[in-house]
Amino acid sequence: MEWKFIDSIPIYSQIVNELTVRIARHDYLPGQKLPSVRDIAAQACVNPNTVQRALTELERSGLVRTERTNGRFVTEDEKVLKEIYKSLSSAYINEMIEKLRNIGMNDTEIMEAISSCVGKEK
């Protein structure tokens, strides 16, 4: 998987976001071992300390847990996983709404546009 970084956002924060998205879309399943710090750093072409900082943030959020000598694993806590999924979907929806308002759409037009798109085949 390719890593692309935006200069204006701290890299560790972008790694947190990317790993969170990958967990939410089930690239990494509950209970699954994550790649090592060195492996992620090599894939993303970043310093291992940056990856370590990102993984520490994910641990604090409860999305990842560490097993001594075994590595890091995705949480199996359904409540945490549902909250992350809900948080991501809310952020994406709010971003979309903001963009639609910026082009002059009101709430009714936004809801109509969303309704017309939901359920359509890709």
UniProtKB/TrEMBL annotation:
Keywords: DNA-binding, Transcription, Transcription regulation. Gene3D superfamilies: Winged helix-like DNA-binding domain superfamily/Winged helix DNA-binding domain. CDD domains: WHTH_GntR (cd07377). Residues 9-77 form the HTH gntR-type domain. Signal peptide: none annotated. GO terms for molecular function: DNA binding; DNA-binding transcription factor activity. SUPFAM superfamilies: Winged helix' DNA-binding domain. InterPro entries: Tscrpt_reg_HTH_GntR, WH-like_DNA-bd_sf, WH_DNA-bd_sf. The keyword Transcription regulation applies. The keyword Transport does not apply. Pfam families: GntR. PANTHER family: GNTR-FAMILY TRANSCRIPTIONAL REGULATOR, HTH-TYPE TRANSCRIPTIONAL REPRESSOR YTRA. This is GntR family transcriptional regulator. It comes from Mogibacterium pumilum. The lineage of its organism: Bacteria, Bacillati, Bacillota, Clostridia, Peptostreptococcales.
